[in-house]
Amino acid sequence: MSGRQIMTAEEIRRATIRISHEIVEKHAGTEGLALVGIQRRGVPLAGRIAAAIAEHEGVLLPVGALDITFYRDDLSLIAQQPLVKGTDLPFDLNGATIVLVDDVLYTGRTIRAAMDALIDFGRPRAIRLAVLVDRGHRELPIRADHVGKNVPTSREELVRVHLAETDGGDGVEIERPTPALAAAG
What we know:
By secondary structure, this protein is of the alpha/beta class. It is about 35% helix and about 25% strand. The strands form 2 sheets. It has a 5-stranded parallel β-sheet. A 3-stranded antiparallel β-sheet has the order 1-8-7. Helix 2 links the parallel strand 2 and strand 3.
């Protein structure tokens, strides 16, 4: 694989702040608003968005973590023993506006699984979606309400998000299969 950087740490920081402003503006404030990060990299992103909202609005929003492992439609294809990361929703979802947060929006299947999982925990008033990168190629009728960066990709490319909390540093890269590997595969 060969890759190129499409977002620096500073661009991720600015996108996170912009998304935080958009969320508050679309919701017309912070009342009844909560953030839920999808495990794994959506969780620290939700925390960063909540911190940005706290900084400019003076309100600390509730933040949760959602593990969608057992809601995936490709669970049998992933692994014999799937890695479960844990769900933590320390607030009542009923009647709240939930902003799901994830790193990359691709086919929409992860988001469908996340909505199924959320509904098992309560009945939110609304569910919105914030993603750092939207790479296109949707297979389901799902779109993000808040996007850090739209990046056209081919299906063969991989978008890798690196966050300090999980990977030791921030950045987003697109990896392309090298011609030698593509010819061998």
